[in-house]
């Protein structure tokens, strides 16, 4: 059985799924998206992702294409038709199809919706987490509204390519003050020399990561100290540990920054513990 996609009210074979050439998501990046981790066929952090979706749409003046309940049915049906038990679910909502014009189209244009699902090899993901990954740094060059989860990701694409060419998995953006903002597709964290967890605050033009938010609760429940305080690449390299978070990476230890080791160059106990605790919590609360 091949992959199935949901496109504007219809479930179609993945290879036959298309959007109109004047879809504003295609022409203007006038669209938002969300990605859910899927555990045992259920959506992790569902409430957080729905809330962020609704906020992103509101910030761009795009109406919610359907009720949350109806959208949940579409998402779950996409998982069912693709027989996904462990994976990722992708949702994209654009302003819709209209004759090309920079300004918003006249009333009557309906948002366009696509949903796809893909499998994740959890055993391979755990093996990668046990090894840890490298990150590279790159100058912050994105627009001033990174809090909106839009599909306008060209700077992120270029940053990811830079990381890949360097043999790394992720790139961290560094602002004009020399401080790490976030990753190209993740939030950035360290465990500093005092054992305090640190990550950038969301007022600093970074994405309000849903995994990040859930992990904050896990950290507090574990009795660990966390501060929303920036750090430099040098502080990351001299930290006890570093890691990244996101729906696709969960909690993933970082063992090098720009080719230089973090700590002793191996995944640390805090990140490894938080990964386990987050997954346990996500499985227990998925819908």
TrEMBL record:
It catalyses: L-leucine + 2-oxoglutarate = 4-methyl-2-oxopentanoate + L-glutamate; L-valine + 2-oxoglutarate = 3-methyl-2-oxobutanoate + L-glutamate; L-isoleucine + 2-oxoglutarate = (S)-3-methyl-2-oxopentanoate + L-glutamate. Its EC number is 2.6.1.42. GO terms for cellular component: cytosol. It is an enzyme of class 2 (transferase). It comes from the Bacteria. Its cofactor is pyridoxal 5'-phosphate. Keywords: Amino-acid biosynthesis, Aminotransferase, Branched-chain amino acid biosynthesis, Pyridoxal phosphate, Transferase. One of its GO terms (biological process) is amino acid biosynthetic process. Pathway: Amino-acid biosynthesis; L-valine biosynthesis; L-valine from pyruvate: step 4/4; Amino-acid biosynthesis; L-leucine biosynthesis; L-leucine from 3-methyl-2-oxobutanoate: step 4/4; Amino-acid biosynthesis; L-isoleucine biosynthesis; L-isoleucine from 2-oxobutanoate: step 4/4. GO terms for molecular function: branched-chain-amino-acid transaminase activity. Acts on leucine, isoleucine and valine. Belongs to the class-IV pyridoxal-phosphate-dependent aminotransferase family. This is Probable branched-chain-amino-acid aminotransferase.
């Amino acid at each position: 059985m091949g992959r199935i996609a949901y496109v504007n009210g219809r479930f179609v074979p993945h290879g036959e799924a298309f959007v109109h050439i004047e879809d504003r998501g295609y022409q203007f990046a006038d669209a938002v998206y969300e990605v859910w981790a899927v555990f045992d066929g259920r959506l992790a952090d569902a409430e957080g992702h729905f809330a962020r979706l609704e906020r992103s749409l509101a910030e761009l003046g795009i109406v919610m294409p359907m009720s949350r309940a109806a959208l949940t049915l579409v998402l779950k049906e996409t998982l069912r038709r693709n027989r996904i038990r462990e994976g990722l679910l992708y949702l994209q909502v654009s302003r819709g199809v209209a004759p090309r014009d920079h300004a918003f189209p006249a009333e009557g244009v309906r948002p366009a919706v696509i949903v796809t699902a893909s499998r994740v090899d959890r055993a391979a993901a755990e093996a990668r987490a046990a090894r840890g990954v490298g990150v590279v740094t790159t100058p912050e060059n994105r627009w001033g509204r990174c809090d909106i989860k839009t599909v306008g990701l060209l700077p992120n694409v270029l940053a990811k390519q830079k990381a890949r060419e360097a043999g790394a998995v992720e790139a961290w953006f560094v602002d004009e003050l020399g401080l790490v903002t976030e990753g190209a597709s993740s939030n950035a964290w360290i465990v500093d020399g005092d054992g305090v967890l640190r990550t950038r605050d969301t007022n600093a033009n970074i994405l309000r990561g849903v995994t990040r938010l859930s992990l904050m609760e896990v950290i507090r429940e574990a009795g660990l100290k966390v501060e929303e305080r920036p750090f430099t690449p040098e502080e990351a390299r001299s930290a006890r540990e570093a890691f990244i978070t996101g729906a696709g990476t969960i909690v993933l230890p970082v063992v090098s920054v720009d080719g230089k080791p973090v700590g002793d160059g191996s995944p640390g106990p805090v990140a490894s513990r938080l990964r386990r605790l987050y997954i346990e919590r996500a499985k227990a609360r998925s819908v």
